Amino acid sequence: MPFSYYSLPFCKPPEGVKDSAENLGELLMGDRIENSPYKFKMYKNESDIFLCKSEALSPDHFKILTKRIDEMYQVNLILDNLPAIRYTQKEGYTLRWTGYPVGVKVKDSYYIFNHLKFKVLVHEYEDANMARVMGTGDAAEVEFEKSDIKWPSRWDAYLKMEGSKVHWFSILNSLMVITFLAGIVLVILLRTVRRDLTRYEELDKEAQAQMNEELSGWKLVVGDVFRAPSHPALLCIMVGDGVQILGMAVVTILFAALGFMSPASRGTLITGMLFFYMILGIVAGYVAVRLWRTIGCGDSKGWVSVSWRAACFFPGIAFLILTTLNFLLWGSHSTGAIPFSLFVILLLLWFCISVPLTLVGGYFGAKAPHIEFPVRTNQIPREIPPQKYPSWLLVLGAGTLPFGTLFIELFFIMSSIWMGRVYYVFGFLFIVMILLVVVCAEVSLVLTYMHLCVEDWKWWWKSFFASGSVAIYIFLYSVNYLIFDLKSLSGPVSATLYLGYSLFMVLAIMLATGTVGFLSSFWFVHYLFSSVKLD
């Protein structure tokens, strides 16, 4: 829960507190940038600057200060658009933090850090001076120092990749999982499927008829494999939204990896995500409606309803979660609360841009030719024989493999979101994301084949949740992170906020990964049964 700096009884600037203009992303993140009473004069080293004398603390001010110290709150400072960084030497390592603690508790006494020492590195150009904040300490002085760091490289100190070996280990780990799964997929496609098909196609009519009676496995469900699933509209909506979320993630991470979303431009990442999500509404509508027509064997009736619901399903749930959390933030007077005016802007963006684009995509989906099934569906559904293991157990277990490719990178992302650390290894993140997509596709494909082999033709939803179940493990990891890494979180409100935001992210991940699994399984089943010649 972020709070305004001046919610605590600190010295205020003589000219009064002014907010800097913030973009959509900054407002959504709860970043409020205000002017400070600290003044710097270029190349003028100063020490023992007296800032102001605060009034005696009232009981309320004392209570809130001790509360913020107990909760380990940090003050974040910005000079020349760079965050102030605090350096500490520990066992030969240099540890870096953005900002400094409000205070510290020693035994039963509280101390406020009210003396700051700034060291500003300056690189001289012919035409202008460039300043750079490097560290804060505990004495009242400002010191300027000449530096060789040029303007384009000034963010390097923040973005030095700590633990790059860990990122490479994460990628290596993912590649091993992928290779293992790719081997299984290859065996299924080449050995089993090809052998069965060759044998099946070489037989004469009489032998084929005889073999039909002795058939086992996936060939038995040929008349049921494309039978419409239960709740087909919901599946189409979730797949459409999943494509939209996945597209947004891939495009945003790619732009960030190419350096278009610099940390110097605060809030651009969130703004970019919102922009790409709205634009990709057209893809969500197209995919949802085309899948709807495919399941309905070309019938486009109800396409408006499907594209309208695709436009409202995920944003609606997100809106519900965020509104509930916002009431908690408003109640706590946190800067993380979304102002009412911003709520109106978000609603306008949703209904004036995202919804119409999704309906346009739906229109194109209704006009596009539907995907024809290679085999006919029987009138009467075939009975599914009793299974050794409950199929939902396999579906839940399948999520462990995609989670295995992701969990190391997950720690860095969580630290960036919740601990205020700078995350800028988007190149690694892009690679991990591509690997995750491949693993999700492979896992779902293998599981669908296993279900078809035991004559279970209800593969539609299972293929979605086989890879989508990774979301369950990510949520459990979030709970684990809350208990073991965010020990300083105070009270039920902070924990509720954390779990609420985690639930929102996990829902988005489930839709994106589930969609990858479903589409790969759909392609596989279509390919498998289009290879079979049946009378």
Structure notes:
The structure is a single chain. This protein is of the alpha+beta class. It has a domain at 38-158. Helix content is 56%, strand content 10%. It contains 16 helices and twelve strands. The protein has helices spanning 24-29, 59-70, 156-159, 164-202, 205-214, 232-257, 268-279, 281-295, 303-331, 340-367, 391-398, 400-418, 426-453, 460-468, 470-484, 491-530; strands at residues 46-47, 74-75, 78-79, 82-83, 85-90, 93-98, 100-101, 103-106, 109-112, 117-124, 129-136, 141-146. A four-stranded mixed beta sheet has the order 1-12-10-11, with no helix packed on it. Helix 6 runs antiparallel to helix 13. The model is unreliable at 128-139 (pLDDT under 50).
